[in-house]
Each structure stands twice: as structure tokens, then as C-alpha cells.
Design brief:
Helices cover 32% and strands 24% of the residues. The chain has helices at 39-45, 106-126, 143-154, 167-176, 188-201, 213-223, 251-255, 271-287, 302-306; strands spanning 2-5, 14-17, 27-36, 63-67, 73-77, 89-93, 97-99, 134-138, 159-164, 180-183, 206-209, 233-238, 258-263, 294-298, 314-318. The strands form three sheets. Strands 3, 4, 5, 6, 7, 14 and 15 form a seven-stranded mixed β-sheet that branches. Strands 10-9-8-11-12-13 form a six-stranded parallel β-sheet, with helices on both faces. The protein is globular and about 65 Å long.
Length: 319
């Protein structure tokens, strides 16, 4: 079959032939129709993600939409090296796939599943969000961040604050549900003040963090800043590290605040929780579509597209 193949952790995948996967007991062969290029896919292909096996060669891709032999349209995830989803065929485990609802096309589903699940699972499975709580999103101007604003709104957030670097995207988020925006282009002290003013003026119940690094450090400093009235319980939910993989965390921040640090991703949320999040997300998306840009690209073009920065559109490869 034709597939994208990773032969080096320092080079883009190449379009080549690869042996067809052979289903074992409990597995189904799927004819792939669309697979999204998510940040986790890039990280696994570069060998930097904690889920990397370190073995070459392999087919990248962690999820996709496709069709079973009887024509059933499904969404499925797979972590069965060396077979990923950037190929004409892939393997799904019985019971670990979702039948796509009517009204949701396969390309859109492949594009929104991973970024949508990231905030849906973080809110519902990890942070136990309840309607009426306030949410601050670090990294709100990316694809996942924009979806998280819309998801928090639909789940009943009382106030949504979007923080990001792109001024045009921040302005757009106001029409998607954000009540306030904070620019991350400010210097550290100004950013701490902006976060502090939000916490003191309106309160923050929950943070969705796609960035880590300096933006996270600024928010955490604001939580524990001297003179700030006790901010109460704040669940800081870490989802991605687009800004940096590490932070400096003074112990006093944890001792002096109601801060709770959580992670949300493969490992911290169970596969059952993740698939339940996707199922619920798809049901809502099928009834009332989310505002998101999907860019469909032939899989044969993977080398030219792979290293291009994401520009307001989630790339979806079509075999």
C-alpha cells in the first residue's frame, strides 16, 4: 500500500510503499479516508514525544476516519507500531472506534477530533468542569485553542478569557465566545499584571494550557503574587507545551494558593474517557458545526507540507 513512512527522526516522512497491515484477533482492517496532522503526530515522528518507541521505520498518524468492509464510516485511534494512519489502510481495535454521526463528514471529523478532544477531555474528564465556571485558555489562537473557546462556551462557561499572540485571531475569538482577551506579546511583568487583574476582578476557576513555558510561569506568578486576595481553587490543566517543555515553579506558589496542577493527555486520561470525549464532541459538532478551518491535502504531498507552519487551518491528509 501507499503510505507516509518515517525513516529518520530528523527528516520529514516520505511517500513510499509499505506492507499492508495484517489484522490480528480483535482488530479490524480500515480503509483510511482522512487523517489529521496534529502536534502529537509531529512529536512522535521526531522521536520527542513520551509515547515514541524509538524504532524505525514506521507510519505516522494516531487517528483517522475510514470505512470498514461493510461501508460503515468510523473514527478510530491507533497506536500499533509500525502502523499509523497516514496510509491507505490501518488497523482499528474492535470496540475502540466510533461510528460517525450523520451530518459530520469524514474530512472534518479527522481534522477536529484530536484538537477538540484535547479540551473536551481536559474540561470534563480531568478538571470536572461544571457549567457556570470561568475558564482561561493559554494558547487560544491555535486550532485547538479556538475550538476550546467554542467548547467551553457550549458547555456553559460563565466567562472565557483567551490568551494568545496573534492579535487578529484574538479579535476573532470574541465572536466565538471569548469575553476577554490577553496578549501574550507583553513582557513578563505586564503579563503577570494582566493575569492578576483577571484573577482579582473576575476569578478564574480553570486554566487550559496549550503552551507551558513563559506564559504558564507568568500565570502561576500572578496566582501567588503578594497582595492578591486568596484566589480560591484554580485547576491548572496542562495539555500542550508549544512554548517550552519545562518551567520554573517556586514551591511558594503551591503553598500560598489554591492551585491544583493537572495533566490531560494519553496516559492521564483513560482511552475510555478519551473516546467518550470524542463521541460527545462529534454528536454536538454534527448538530451545530464548530468554526474551524480544515485543509485537505493528498498524502503524496506530505514531504512538502510536513514542515510548513500551521496557519489557521488543520491539515488533513487524504490517501
Amino acid at each position: 500500500m501507499n503510505a507516509a513512512v518515517v525513516t529518520s527522526f530528523s527528516a520529514p516522512p516520505s511517500y513510499a510503499t509499505f506492507d499492508d497491515p495484517e489484522p490480528a484477533e480483535g482488530q479490524l482492517l480500515v480503509n483510511v479516508t482522512a487523517a489529521g496532522l496534529h502536534q502529537i503526530v509531529r512529536s512522535l515522528a521526531s522521536g520527542t514525544h513520551y509515547g515514541s518507541t524509538g524504532q524505525l521505520p514506521f507510519i505516522p498518524g494516531v487517528d483517522a476516519t475510514g470505512r470498514l468492509e461493510d461501508g460503515t464510516r468510523i473514527y478510530f485511534g491507533t497506536l500499533q507500531p509500525p502502523y499509523g494512519t497516514f496510509a491507505e489502510k490501518a488497523l482499528a481495535t474492535k470496540g475502540m472506534y466510533i461510528t460517525l454521526p450523520d451530518g459530520l463528514d469524514e474530512t472534518t471529523a479527522a481534522g477536529i477530533a484530536n484538537p477538540g478532544m484535547s479540551s473536551w477531555a481536559a474540561l470534563k474528564a480531568r478538571a470536572k468542569f461544571t457549567a457556570g465556571e470561568s475558564v482561561l485558555i493559554l494558547g487560544a489562537t491555535g486550532i485547538a485553542g479556538k475550538l476550546s473557546v467554542q467548547i467551553a462556551k457550549r458547555l456553559g462557561a460563565s466567562r472565557i478569557v483567551a490568551a494568545g499572540r496573534n492579535p487578529q485571531a484574538l479579535e476573532e475569538l470574541k465572536s466565538l465566545g471569548a469575553d476577554e482577551t490577553i496578549s501574550l506579546t507583553q513582557d513578563h511583568d505586564a503579563l503577570v499584571t494582566a493575569f492578576r487583574d483577571e484573577i482579582a476582578g473576575h476569578g478564574v476557576d480553570l486554566v487550559l494550557d496549550y503552551l507551558w513555558g513563559a506564559p504558564a510561569e507568568a500565570f502561576l506568578a500572578a496566582v501567588a503574587q503578594k497582595g492578591l486576595k486568596h484566589a480560591g481553587r484554580i485547576r491548572f490543566t496542562q495539555i500542550g507545551n508549544m512554548a517550552a517543555p519545562t518551567i520554573t515553579l517556586p514551591a511558594a506558589i503551591l503553598r500560598s494558593s489554591g492551585l491544583e496542577l493537572l495533566g490531560s493527555g494519553f496516559g492521564s486520561a483513560s482511552m475510555d474517557e478519551i473516546f467518550q470525549a470524542v463521541r460527545e464532541f462529534f454528536e454536538i459538532a454534527a448538530k451545530t458545526p464548530f468554526a474551524v478551518n480544515i485543509k485537505a491535502v493528498p498524502l503524496r504531498d506530505i514531504e512538502s507540507v510536513w514542515s510548513a507552519p500551521e496557519r489557521d487551518a488543520r491539515v488533513v491528509f487524504k490517501p
